[in-house]
Amino acid sequence: MKPINEMKLTFLSRSANESFARAAVAAFAAQLDPAVDELADLRTAISEAVTNAIVHAYPHELGNIFLTVQLYENGCITVRVRDRGQGIEDVSKAMEPLYTTGGEDRSGLGFSVMQSFMDKVRVRSIPGKGTTVTMEKYISLRVKGRS
Amino acid sequence: MQVEFNADTDQLTASLLGELDHHGAGEIRERIDSVILQQHCRHLVLDLSRLGFMDSSGIGLIMGRYRLMLSLGGQLTVTGMTPRMEKMLRMAGLEKLPIWEKQEKENAHETNQ
N or C: which end of chain B has fewer CB within 10 A? Predict the structure, then answer.
């Protein structure tokens, strides 16, 4: 199935871009007329994925984060967050709830939150090359013409 | 991201405003901790009712303040959580900690949208 719309953004791994990424995806996803809760789920998951890239992919330098969002006619929205950072040695370990390499005030919940708030989460990573997180969420389609 | 403090004789309330993410969490943590230590606070109340957004960075902030208050022989209470925030706290296994303040239905926040 081909998307009905698509957007791509590239931005630096500065933490100020966490809120930018959330706002950008939410503004684009508005075309599917998501409910307030669906939008909040989406914003939270984006924030987790982008924060992971900022904190873990590029721990010692700035790098690019590539964000792709696609909207589908059936209400599906796919979000891809890709980096060319250091990668994850053991993806399944990294996805375990509460596992973190991020220090004391990181909760280790990033992937759990993504999985909980999105319908599908896939993570591919090559150590030394980078990580791609692909997430899907179905927005419940509302009756057209309803105000 | 802002934090407002309201000190009482026996408790310190820190109300968080805006969007709490990794970007803002570090500075907020430092501000809260410095007030806790300055005022020899024994009971910290984190009021989340005026937050427009929180991701798992907020859970990290709560866990860290819980540990700090415990180490000081004090306690932490978290108020004003949305169902989404509560869900994340449960994921962290924090539902068993004595930090919850259950919302009364009649004074539910009008800011909870």
Answer: C
